[in-house]
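[Meeting: bench + compute handoff]

Bench side (C.D.) handed over the final construct sequence. Compute side (W.E.) agreed to return the predicted structure before the next meeting so the bench team could plan truncations. Sequence as handed over:
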Amino acid sequence: MEAESAQPGFWDDPAKAQAVMRELSRKKNLVGDWRELEKKAADLKEMIALVIAEDDHSLKEEMQSELKRLSSRFERLESRQLFVGEYDSRNAMLALHAGAGGTESQDWANMLLRMYLRWAERHDYEAEVLDVSPGEEIGIKSAIVEVKGDYVYGYLKGEHGVHRLVRLSPFDSDHARHTSFVLVEVLPEAEEAVDLEINAEELRIDTFRSSGPGGQHMQKTSSAVRITHLPTGLVAICQGERSQHQNKEAAMKILYARLLELDRKKKQEERARLKGERIEAGWGNQIRSYVLHPYKMVKDHRTDYEVHDAEAVLDGELDGFTASYLRSRVGK
């Protein structure tokens, strides 16, 4: 790839050249991560040998902690070998939609939003809430988050589906047990000029006043933007930013991601048809349950992977779930 980037005329097609350079950067980072881990493992091996030779047990705990850190890093790097999807190395768009149930589901949507933001923070990914629709009393009705970093879509694609919460309601005077549902969509971010070409004539762009909290500014200006892709009927709405320009930019990102996902699904269905396979129509099936009462457990229904530290999961500890999902897809 480096040789290709040095060829005359490489930058004649800037969009293609930028895509190649992004992929080259990702591959360099991956090789660099493995080399760094290799060096740290070699250093730790030498330290352990020294501790054993000198019969020095004072550093034993420190060695065990470092070994645990390196093992965790190894497992995360190893899981990258499971990324075989066309878009796994991309950034991702997360869309959350509260299900029926009013306050309960809207609070659950807000809890999931926090979980994914904490997950991104844990892994030094950049996460930006592009749009959010506040709940009537508490929580959120919906939100769209852009998460940037290497292999974000690969890690998060297994989160796509319905997430179920079982708990004693903090909003019910009788403290009855409630079940709430939230739909999570995970879309690969489109590289606009490379993946898709959209003619301006195919778009209808409407502006309107933002709804919900926001103060006087939101009431006086038509800053919210709705973009409709006329050939498919897909719609992207953004009202979370303060300026109309920012909202239009965010809505275009969302629209491109939805169009890329539509194209991906069509290709998947065609491959399945040629192979004579049956694939599920839709993605509304419940994929994971988060139980906070009468016991605590989070279980993925596709892989049967489960943990009992529900608080840690809701604080962004999702690596076990992402890894088990990736391993379950090997060969499929």
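W.E. noted at the follow-up: The CA atoms of residues 94 and 186 lie 5 Å apart. C.D. will use this when planning the next construct.
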